[in-house]
Each structure stands twice: as structure tokens, then as C-alpha cells.
Amino acid sequence: MDLNRQKLLEAYEMMKTIREFEDRVHVEFATGEISGFVHLYAGEEASAAGVCLQLDDRDKIASTHRGHGHCIAKGVEVKGMMAEIYGKQIGTCRGKGGSMHIADLDKGMMGANGIVGGGPPLICGAGLAAKTLGTGGVAVAFVGDGGSNQGTTLESLNLATIWNLPCIFVVENNGYAETTPSKWSVSLSGNAVDRAAGFGMPGVVLDGHDFFAVYETAGEAVDRARNGGGPTLIECKLNRYYGHFEGDTQTYRGPDEVKKVREAKDCLALFSEKVTRDGTISGADLQEIDDRVMQLIEDSVVEAKAAPKPPAADLLTDVYVSY
To answer: What stretch of H or E contains 307?
Structure first.
């Protein structure tokens, strides 16, 4: 893999930023100052980072209702995201999107999506555009295990194959479609990857806590798509640390389930242990990143709280598209 020291530091900073962003939103949401639903990505950072570090400015992604991590990994500005979650005018979408609808087309982020399975059809469109225009770009749809059951997702898998589109479908299987275990709701014993064969595309399942496994697999899929090899389905088995949404009591999870996952399957801890053990990166290097990230998150919250809300005059703007 092409993971030199600089790339490894970039990967760690990306995952650390996602983790601290989500942990801080968890704390701030409890104050009652954030409106609407919030779905946190903490625990799943290796998936977003491993995939998006293989992408460049030509490429597009579409996300889910749990989209903060994907946004950060694709380069959406952190302060703008925090302001957006607070519903402020300086937010990425001028405070109109909120947590579930952050988008930044300039960064190739086509949007988080409150519609389960809403991303894959968008990605087929982006993939078709890249193929038609010859940009060399690829399009990636992140979808959950629940979303993998949606007709939109299955139709998109079929369309991407018959049109041989440069698309990658990443199923982030965190074990629960809201509160329903995937082993009860996803056919083939809860394994979405087994569906790939039915659509004539490669399917790979991996440990989504392992950044290196995700990065390598995503790299192979991206290279294949760029070179005309068509779509790939990747299933990342991972865990979310918080509930389906903020306020979810998680009574459907086993005793100490999250505690055990945090202790044994923390993607940041696994990454740190590996890169410091082989001497590529020092603990001091990681601490420097930690300090910088913590300051960024603190500044983001302070600025978001102080920023103005959208004025009444903005109520009817951004309603219709002007061509």
C-alpha cells in the first residue's frame, strides 16, 4: 500500500477529527441547543477514512443520515459543519440542512440523506456522468445494513452493473437497522456482501474497524472502477458507539456490548498501536494531532454558538433550482 508517513498522519488526523467532532456533538446535543435529529458516526471512522483517502477531487460520494464522518473524510470544512448542525447562517448549507442533510458539492459530497437508501441512485447518476464525460472519476455510495435492503439500493446495484459504471457501494453494517439486528433483517445470515454475485460484481467483506483493510480494499475497487472494470460492493463490519439517534436508550443491545467494543475494537486505538509499534510514527506525533484537533473542535463550537441564525428573508431562497 502507498501509505507513507505523511499519509498515515493524515489518516489518523481524519479519524481523530471525526471521533472528536461526534463526541462533542453528543455532549452539545444534551444541552438542548441543537434542533432536530442527530445520528452519530463514532466508532465507524476507519470506514470513511479508508475509503475517502483513496479518492480525489474528481470523485463523488453520497451518504446516509449518519453522515458527519463521510463529510469530514471527503474534506467538508469542520467549522461549517458544526455551524450547520447548530442551524446557523455560516453553516455549510446556510443552516438549512442540519445534521442529516449536510452537502458540499464543491468537495464532491453530494449530501447526507434522511431517506434510507437514498444515496445509491444518486451515485449511479454521478458514475454515469463521469463515464460519459471521461473524467476518470468514481462515485461512492455509503449505505447501512438497513439501507442495503431498500429497493433503491438493489436497483442501483443492477443499474451500475448493466451500465458498467465506475461506482462503489460501501455497506457499513453496524449490526442494527435502527434497533433491528441485521441477522434478522438481511438475508444470507446478515451478510449484504453475498448479494454482489447476484448482480455480477465483486463483493468483499472486511473488518471495518481495521483502517488498513478498508484502505487496501477501497484502493483496489477505485482502481478497478477508474480503469473501466465496473462497480464493486464492499461490506464493512463495524460498530457504532452511540444509539441509532441521540436519545436512543439502546435497550436492544446486550449487557456491556458497547463497552466491550470500545475496549477491543476501537479503530483509533488499533491504528495507533500499529503505527507506533513499528516506529513509523511516535506517540508525540499523535499527541500533536490530538491537541490540534481538540482546538479545532472547541473553536468550531464557540463560533457556531456565536453565529447568527438565518434571517427571515432566507426562508424562500434555495427552494427551486435555477438553470
So the answer is: none
Phi and psi, residue 16, nearest 5°: -65, -40
* The model's pTM: 0.96
Domain count, the chain: 1
List of residues 6+ apart from 204 with CB closer than 8 A: 193, 217, 221, 232, 233, 234, 235
In a domain, 322, yes or no: no
- For residues 235 and 169, the answer to whether their CB atoms sit within 8 Å is no
The range of the structural domain enclosing residue 104 comes to 5-306
Closest CA to 61 of 101, 108, 15: 108
Q: What is the pLDDT of residue 50?
A: 98
Considering the domain boundaries, does residue 311 fall inside one?
A: no
Whether 52 maps to a domain, the answer reads yes
pLDDT of residue 148 exceeding 90, the answer is: yes
Q: What is the pLDDT of residue 188?
A: 81
Angle at 64 (CA atoms; ends 100, 46), nearest 5 degrees: 110
- Minimal CA–CA distance to 111: which of 128, 98, 127, 129? 98
In a domain, 78, yes or no: yes
Q: What is the mean pLDDT of residues 217-225?
A: 98
What pLDDT is stored for residue 2 in this prediction?
A: 83
Q: Supply the CATH number for residue 287's domain.
A: 3.40.50.970
Question: What distance in Å separates the CA atoms of residue 310 and residue 313, rounded to the nearest whole number?
Answer: 8
Q: Is residue 321 scored above 90 in pLDDT?
A: no
Helix 5-29, helix 267-277: angle, nearest 10: 150
